Amino acid sequence: MDVPVQPSGCRRRLGGLPVPVLLPRSELSSGRAAGMAATALVDEVSTDTYRATLEALTAHPTRHSFSAAYRDAARTVSDRFAALGYGTREEPVAVGGRETLNIIADKRGTAPEGERQLVYVVAHLDSINEAGGVNSPAPGADDNASGAAGVLEIARVLATAIIRHDLRLVLFGGEEQGLHGSRVHVADLTDADRARIIMVVNMDMIGRLNTAAPSVLLEGATVSQHVIDTLAQAAHDTSDLEVFVSLAPFASDHVSFIDADLPAVLTIEGEDQLNTDEHTPRDTLTGLNISVAISILRMNTAAVATMLGVSA
User: Fold this and answer.
1) pTM for the predicted model, two decimal places
2) Which helix (H) or strand (E) holds 290?
3) What are the distances in angstroms from CA 190 to CA 174, 193, 276?
4) Of 91, 174, 220, 269, which residue is the least packed, with the fewest Cβ within 10 Å?
5) 140 neighbors 128 (Cβ within 8 angstroms)
6) Would you tell me how many other CB atoms lie within 10 Å of the CB of residue 16?
7) Are strands 118-124 and 197-203 parallel, antiparallel or unpaired?
């Protein structure tokens, strides 16, 4: 028996939520706040490797959380993290009597014990076809191969970087059934790790052009304001993205962190509600605009590198 899809795993914006506001570029400084080391890393973000990862993820007929294909995809990304030198582990996730899993990858910083803070980069790996069952076609190119491939690309770029603070990358399962993977992960965090978290960047649907000009929505809460500010500055420094901001978080894995008073921000393509292909077999690579995704990845890479204290 399939577990019913919960609204918390759907990005359709419902009535009553505040409309995101456009952040004027004039409100940001014109200098490169990220610094030379972070800027150099941004330039390592590769369209070719990102596209190849997208192709590998969408080659699975579905990535439904309870499918064998999802576990195949999870093994693939786990192997990729390990090959890059990350400490990698699986985290089981129970959903209504069924089970899926998260993939977690860690890179340790150089700061002394007790001084290292913790930066997260996350996305959900699963996909869904709302009109079908577990094994129905669900390529999920935008939702959310685009974000999962983004985590892997940032992992590649940062693999050999010298970082002061700890980096944790997570690909969640069970998001489409109600944010289960991220809720399990946050609930299992130790008090020590909770106290160390200074940034959570979530990527969900970063690959479609829904607006006249390329744009990104930074969605968080009051606890996330410093992360929003860092990302907005990074967008200004590394891209031509129009930046929209919302303090009404909903329907993606950043919510699980924010509910625990942790500073998380969703980075998502502008006007994502105009993407009518999500959760259908039509969500394929042909609908993606890779340049939008690369711009968002450049922004995220700069912001994450800054928070990690990357050095040349």
Assistant:
1) 0.95
2) helix 290-308
3) 22, 5, 39
4) 91
5) yes
6) 6
7) parallel
Kindly tell me if the per-residue pLDDT of 194 is higher than 80.
yes
Distance of CA 146 to the CA centre of its chain: 9
Tell me the pLDDT band of 19, cut-offs 50, 70 and 90: confident
DSSP states of 46-72:
-HHHHHHHHHHHHTSSB--TTSHHHHH
Hey, CA dihedral for 257, 258, 263, 266, is it positive or negative? positive
From first CA to last CA, the distance across the chain in angstroms is 53
**Band of pLDDT at residue 37, cut at 50, 70 and 90:** confident
pLDDT (mean) for 128-153: 98
Tokens coding 216: 């990104």
Tokens of 241: 């993205």
The angle formed by the CA atoms of residues 204, 205 and 206, to the nearest 5 degrees, is 105
The domains of the chain are located at 22-308
Question: What's the token pair of residue 290?
Answer: 């890779």
Q: Judging by DSSP bridges, how do beta strands 197-203 and 166-172 pair with one another? A: unpaired
Q: Quick check: 206 and 231 in contact, CB under 8 A?
A: no
- Model confidence at 52: pLDDT above 90: yes
Fold of 22-308: Aminopeptidase (3.40.630)
Distance between CA atoms of 29 and 158, rounded to whole angstroms? Answer: 26
Looking at residue 311, what DSSP letter applies? B
Q: Which residues of 181-210 are buried (b: 16+ CB within 10 A; e: fewer)?
A: bbbbbbeebeeeeeebbbbbbbbbbbbbbb
| Omega of the bond leading into 144 within 30 degrees of 0 (cis) | yes
Query: Do the bridges between strand 215-219 and strand 264-269 make them parallel or antiparallel, or are there none, so unpaired?
Result: antiparallel
Q: Which tokens belong to 214? A: 């390329």
